[in-house]
Amino acid sequence: MKQYNEIKRKYPDACLLFRVGDFYETFGEDAIRTAKILGIVLTKRGNGSETETALAGFPHHSLNTYLPKLVKAGLRVAICDQLEDPKMTKTIVKRGVTELVTPGVSMNDEVLQATSNNFLASIYFGKKQLGVSFLDVSTGEFLTAQGTAEYIDKLLQNFSPSEILVAKIHKNQFKENFADDHHVFYLEDWVYKQDYAFESLTKHFQTNTLKGFGVDDLPDGIIASGAILYYLSETQHNKLQHISNLQRIAEDAYVWMDRFTIRNLELYHSYNPNAVTLLQVIDKTISPMGGRLLKRWLALPLKNTSAIQERHQVVGYLKDTPGVLSEMQMQIKKISDLERLISKIAAGKVSPREVIYLKDSLDAILPIKELAEKSSNTSVKQIGTQLDDCALLREKIKTTLNPEAPVSIAKGNAIATGVHAELDELRMISHSGKEFLEGIETRESERTGISSLKISFNNVFGYYIEVRNTHKDKVPAEWIRKQTLVNAERYITEELKEYEAKILGAEEKIQALESALFESLVQWMASYIKSVQRNAQLIAQLDCLASFAQLAIDHKYVCPQLVEGFALDIKNGRHPVIERQLPIGTPYVANDVFLDREQQQIIMITGPNMSGKSAILRQTALIVLLAQIGSFVPADSVRMSLVDKIFTRVGASDNISMGESTFMVEMNETASILNNLSERSLVLLDEIGRGTSTYDGISIAWAIAEFLHEHPAKPKTLFATHYHELNEMSEFLPRIKNYNVAVKELKDNVVFIRKLVQGGSAHSFGIHVAKMAGVPQWVVSKAQQVLKKLEKNHSENAFVDVKALKEADMQMSFFNLDDPLLEEIKAEILSLDLNELTPIEALMKLNEIKRLLTKK
Known about the structure:
This protein has 856 residues and is of the alpha/beta class. A seven-stranded mixed sheet has the order 13-23-24-25-21-26-27, sandwiched between helices. A six-stranded mixed sheet has the order 3-4-2-1-5-6, with helices on both faces. It is globular and about 125 Å long.
């Protein structure tokens, strides 16, 4: 316990898994937390004594089962192993922490998700800006940026780090600026110093400067990056050869979407647990690397026309050559997670079987390289040329390891025959032992005439000869008796002892030799880290582009045409997610949208609830977004100029825990849009002003629409609203055009046609929607009466006389509801002659009425 306490003192904020024999034990507070998270038994050590302490443990071979649960619960876990063989020491076994696993730093496959990065983030609060850095230690991706708190918040949304590092001194600033649902670890303030960070990074990359990475002008980003490297050394991650590059997240290279837009468009998360996100709909990637890259592309849509068109051309080529596409997809399927495999090699945590997976994956790249090099598309051809066949690496693995290599080197038989002469000889001794012993058995049996003589093995005596009592007198004098049984005697001989030493020594030597040979193979393979990482990136790109091609084939997407100027012209656009959720055979009602800065800058969309206003807004943003990540789009045709910012204000979301009402949240989001407009912005506003009173709401919505119209940037805007009064704006603001989502009114119902047509809408049909939702008939009828009264008053007088409304004959009789069943019952009751009715008949009549009602 003294040894435990000393180690625990070094890692006070981690849960210490302390190796004792075949178990990992936890004590005290750690034990209580561990038992609760893992659902294992909590016991006590030193029960009743002064040193009594809580204890919970599990077998060491179950580490991979239990460790992920602890890390996913947000714990930092220090794994403390025995550093020497207990047989070799007379005193207490030396122990030490071999790895500190935290939510953001893990190489464990059970903790990681194949198609998601596991980022560790670090944030530095500079004088004017914030620096941020992201590192996925399992793939070696290392990124940095700096900017405003809003920009950093958007990046946190995009990269979803599992853990964030912040200096203790900035604890309050972090809480003020960012949501509190992150795992945050606070470091000492001195870690966030410029000189220290610069020195850490240049020492790691073995350079004198950071200019080669293009980050030397990001001082705050460099400080954040240096803190990450410090944290890795603190968590015992010292083999970091696979982190060979620090990339800049260039803010000006990607479309700006604020955090509200990322959330509103449900790109990869949704508030509704059953909702389908855009990522789920478009992700047809096959490899883990492709899955991760697609998320990055979706988070960072391009603003460079030629780069976007290059992606479109590859997608078009793959779509038009289905043979090449299916062949590539078949090969990509055979490729394991190259990035994570090579990272394990760098960290020295790879198993023999994983090395075989690496070889098989590199083998699967050869046909892809061949196919790509023959391609008529220059970009695909280039990928083919850049793919490295790693011939020497594949050959070395093939000749060194058995194809059926085990999961652990300790299981033996990992190294192939013919690699090492001594190893082969030792294996021969170990394997031919049985035949050798059978030879001795036969020889001695013949020599002594003991027919039932038997050679066996146990842990106490090793190899021995067993002779039944009936043949005891035939035993030669040189045999040494070791044990007497009821009906037999056991003996050993010099020859057996020699052989035993040889055979048991062979087992140990085999294990030591295999481990040494495997270790040297892993070290040699480290020289291929960059080549394999490059291959992984190229395969990821191909996988994403093949995914886009498959999407276009499966769902009839078309190639968007990028043009100069500022126009956006979508013909028969569809919502990529909604169209996939419709029942089979139900066609999606497609819509045209045209926006430019000259004639039709703002489209004012009115129409009832549930008619599809929000769907039209969202689909416009998603079509632009898909086009700029390089995908084809769900429409008949799209001609569009580049968009550099997408802003959305959709739906209401209270932030009550922070003391902000729906309306306050709405105004915060709207302010963020109005203060950041550019001439290439696309703005989508849905139901602005509905969180306050009607007249307030109309005034705010009007003022915002006018502001957007008069703004020098003239941003393209879709404005969905309930307020029909806004339709009047088009009369004196020339670039505002009125549209409405068509509905068909039947006698007492309404059918949504979901088609966008020119002209304003006069009703909102809210009462019809209430009826469709199953609101009681009484409420619906009352609402209709109040509406008629209000409309009458409103046409005569700008202000509604609420008192007159109350005094009017609004009392509803039970029978003036327009329900045919109630009318029928009314007629039935009125036609009864109560003087002639017997009590039994009255009960039967009542029962009949009840049955009519329950049937309804």
